[in-house]
Design goal:
Radius of gyration: 21 Å
Structural class: mainly beta
Number of domains: 1
CATH class: Mainly Beta
Helix content: under 10%
CATH superfamily: Porin
Order of helices and strands: HHEEEEEEEEEEEEEEEHE
């Protein structure tokens, strides 16, 4: 019997939910317990010089994604969440899966593999319809190494009204989940947190997030601390969407930084032009080396084709090629300092 992706993930979540002793239910009850959604995108990318994210002067269609999300209700306080994803580069796997428990109106807990709460984009990085541009800011690219995808462990969220606004406090602990872990080291434990403050000013939101990973070098079993942090601010009101973030990364005596400023304006229900300045320095002690930094001006235009379907076309004017070097696609000292990257995308949700 051939099973559709929705059926496969529903069966997996049902099995997980049964381990928490979900009471017997009729077929009608089960239809109310499960909520299924999906989203995805297909990109085309072409680089004038260098190579980045698989794109070179010949172009590539390899950047794509399909995710199916299922929420299985156990009782009035608890749910099991899971996402099954498929892409050309990473195949098919579970992105995250966790039990969510609502202790009261202000406190919620999670256990399992959870999307790591960091900055504006990390938890919704694959949901392109919730973003302005086809490519996320550079600090969220894997080559930049400012964020991990998820963590295995436990987390607690606490909400409260404070100083005329609303705050969300999040703390977590466990191990970071790395899709492609290094062969010479292992993350032994990690812990971090994020605070999000919706200010009394309509549309203004501030955020601070950070985490520490304790890394063991396998050759000598030595332990080192690896620290990451992001400061964020956004103003989203009426037709405007303005964002800015600053990120840091420190490990083995090397300090990196990255930041961006982004603005978008919805001209009408269909068209949204946007502009972003992006800068990443992978080693602050060698900030003049073009193989260790990259500054980018991204100019693009979004268009809504219909309900749940959108498209974007953008060009990235790059100076420096730090990200292609960090991603292993260009050798240090062998890249072109000035180069462009064209990206076109169709995204959808259902």
């Amino acid at each position: 019997m051939n099973l559709t992706p929705k059926t496969r993930i529903a069966l997996c979540v049902a099995a997980a939910a049964s381990s928490f002793a979900m009471p017997p239910a009729s077929a009608g009850d089960l239809s109310d317990r499960f909520d299924v959604h999906g989203y995805g995108f297909q990109d085309y990318m072409q680089a004038s010089k260098n190579q980045y994210m698989g794109a070179d002067k010949h172009g590539t269609w390899d950047q794509n994604f399909l995710g199916v999300v299922v929420a299985a209700t156990i009782d009035s306080r608890s749910k099991v969440w899971a996402q099954l994803e498929a892409s050309t580069e990473e195949g098919t796997r579970f992105t995250w899966f966790f039990l969510d428990y609502q202790f009261n109106d202000a406190v919620r807990g999670h256990v399992g593999r959870v999307k790591l709460p960091l900055g504006f984009y990390n938890e919704t990085i694959d949901l392109k319809s919730a973003q302005v541009s086809a490519l996320a800011p550079s600090i969220y690219h894997g080559a930049a190494d400012f964020v991990h995808d998820s963590y295995h462990g436990v987390g607690v969220d606490v909400e409260q009204d404070i100083a005329g606004g609303h705050a969300l406090w999040q703390v977590w602990g466990g191990n970071v989940y790395d899709v492609d872990p290094p062969v010479d080291s292992r993350d032994r434990r990690a812990f971090g947190g994020r605070v999000t403050y919706a200010t009394p000013v309509d549309g203004l939101r501030l955020m601070a997030s950070a985490y520490r990973t304790q890394v063991q070098t396998l050759a000598d079993s030595s332990m080192s601390n690896e620290d990451r942090a992001i400061l964020s601010a956004e103003f989203v009101r009426d037709n405007w969407d303005l964002k800015a973030e600053y990120a840091t990364h420190k490990f083995f005596g090397v300090s990196s930084k990255g930041y961006y400023v982004q603005g978008a304006y919805a001209v009408n229900d269909k068209w949204t032009p946007y502009l972003r300045y992006d800068n990443v320095t992978l080693d602050k002690s060698q900030s003049s080396d073009p193989s260790l930094y990259q500054s980018t001006v991204a100019l693009g235009l979004g268009y809504k084709l219909g309900k749940g379907i959108g498209m974007r076309v953008e060009n990235h004017f790059n100076r420096g090629y730090g990200l292609p070097v960090a991603g292993g696609e260009v050798a240090a000292g062998a890249g072109a300092k000035k180069w462009n990257l064209l990206a076109a995308e169709i995204n959808f949700q259902f």
